[in-house]
Amino acid sequence: MKRKRVASRLFNIFLLAVLCYLILTSLSDRNKTISIREVPQIYINEEDELFVNTTGCRISATKPLSLYALSFMEPIEPVLCRMEQLMVAETIGDRNYLVRNISRHGILSWRQVSCIYREFVRVDDAHNKYISLKFFKLTDRTRYLEVGTGLQHIRTWCWVDFGRIIFHDVMYFLPPLPQATNRSTEHQKRKLSVMILGVDSISHMHYMRYFHRVADFIEHLPHTEFWGYNRVALNTYPNLIPLVSGLSVSEMEASCYHDELNFDKCNFLWNEFKRAGYSTIFAEDTDTAGLFIYRKRGFQKQPTDIYMRPLMTEIESHSLYRTTFDLKCTGHRLYGEFYYDFVSKLIPHMERQLFFSFLWNMHGIHDVFPYAKFVDKDYLSILTRLHEKGVMENTLILFMGDHGLRFDKFARTAPGQHEMSQPLLIAIYPEWLKRRFPLAMSNFERNARSLITTFDLHETLKDVIHLDRLTDANVRNRTLYLTNERGISLFLPIPQNRNCKTAEIKQHYCLCNELKSVSTHESAIQEAASFAVDRINELIKPYPQCRVLSLQSVRTAYRAKSSTYRGNYRVSQVMVRLKTTPGDGNFDATVLITMLNGEKTDMKLGGPVTRTDRYAHQAYCVQNYRIEMYCYCL
Ligand SMILES: *[C@@H]1O[C@H](CO)[C@@H](O)[C@H](O)[C@H]1NC(C)=O
Ligand SMILES: *[C@@H]1O[C@H](CO)[C@@H](O)[C@H](O)[C@H]1NC(C)=O
Ligand SMILES: *[C@@H]1O[C@H](CO)[C@@H](O)[C@H](O)[C@H]1NC(C)=O
Ligand SMILES: *[C@@H]1O[C@H](CO)[C@@H](O)[C@H](O)[C@H]1NC(C)=O
Ligand SMILES: *[C@@H]1O[C@H](CO)[C@@H](O)[C@H](O)[C@H]1NC(C)=O
């Protein structure tokens, strides 16, 4: 026990050293990366084209290949995990096997290799427990080791030379396939499965820059590409909570997470689909950054029928190692590859039953600008298989992001700022939906050019549970009673006068505000910047461990082209992009300035102040996700 503690302390010191090294190298690399001049010029396409042109909102068309973006599209080498994949998991008949995967170079003699596998089961979102331990050797003659039947999670590792680990990975065997149900029965034909196929941090423009193969493929499928999809808040959690719950974060937390123990009491979409007889799936390729995990407590009770989390928990605490760009590997696979494999293995299950799946991918693409280039082929392969296996015949797929790239230099350019609020959303659906529900689907397609959010997606998916709501007669009646709410099913016509206010999008994230750049020397801009820094300092006041920040410089500034009027009062909106000290934090703030007869009467923030660089190592002393981005620890 004691030796273990010493070892773990040594290991921590080692980790700390590695961390320091990484921070130092990333600092010294900073000047090497593209030195892009932050030219304060108007970036929006000045031509007439608009993505959205309604009475409530105009969103200018932007271009994926601006000069700025091009300078970030550096060539990138494929990223590899160095460990060889000594074994793979395979189910043959109804039995599960670990199958020796012949080493590429044949350098090893199997006789020197000793292995252990342990089967584990989920306890909660942070813990697994082992239910077996077996020692084994794979000889030249035996390629297959039988490990059991049905759903199994297994961690296995092998070593040579009295303890040098040469292989360490987590394997899974899915539950047996359900009996093939008869698709031609009336019951099945009336229903539609749902797949939320999410890619974190992918903006619409980023998709257009990199997902060429996927885009070509989707072109030949019935689909709708949405041009007015706007984020409602900063990052993944507050943008996806409306999707899965129909509520804002504060409403959801007040209703079912007030004791902050876990999310078990919350009613998320998968619960509703489950009650309607669907199988449910939840998978994300991350441990620490999970939707319900980052600074949260996750679930005590497993939320969906198929759940990837126990695998990620096990990998993260045992088999994880890192490679180029600090990307994470297990066995021979990057986290992303592990996830694509998991999703592919689910396809036979999706073929045979109604399902609701929430699939979310972030590895690599969340952090490395040109990484999307690799992801293109992975998604092409997933979509191709869903098509070939007939899953698409029965499924509404939302291929979507939550926001654009939020960190590092691209986010600090003008198009990067815009793209952060403009995530990707493409719906892919079977042709018969248009035949059966012509009015609903014509609304759906018209909404491709409306201002929409994840609140609307929630209402849309609720309609999928009760498809009879979509008949022409019902849609006509529902349209009569339609009010300009924040969440409206996309099968209904989004009102022309919807704007960011009625859609509950904070000004800071609102794409309908056309911005023009203004001089950072204007006194109104300098005042707005100081005002924003003062607001930050107010927020961190209760945390004495955070240093008070002061304004270092205003990098760029924009003013909304039009002001709003309230009686004699005029409200103008500016956005300042500033740097603070200590810590060199990069922040964006939208400030609303109220004027009366040319005199300023009031200033307030149009949404939270947001950050566009990484801060984790500065904010180690706070555990509060609302505060951490502002905190430079003493
Ligand atoms: C980056 O370049 C600037 C100006 O060329 C220089 O002042 C600064 O020290 C450099 N920073 C690093 C980390 O090399
Ligand atoms: C936007 O819509 C208005 C009203 O329908 C129309 O007059 C105008 O030409 C449209 N603008 C563009 C750029 O399409
Ligand atoms: C076997 O290992 C090689 C190299 O590690 C890998 O490229 C290959 O995909 C593995 N085979 C399977 C079936 O996973
Ligand atoms: C499905 O149903 C049809 C007609 O009811 C029948 O001809 C067919 O054999 C069934 N297929 C299976 C796999 O049960
Ligand atoms: C139309 O919708 C209203 C309000 O939802 C409802 O009360 C009414 O029964 C509906 N009428 C028909 C014919 O479906």
From TrEMBL:
Keyword match Signal: yes
Name of the coding gene: gi7295901
Key words of the record: Signal
Signal peptide limits: 1-28
Protein name, entry field: FI08407p
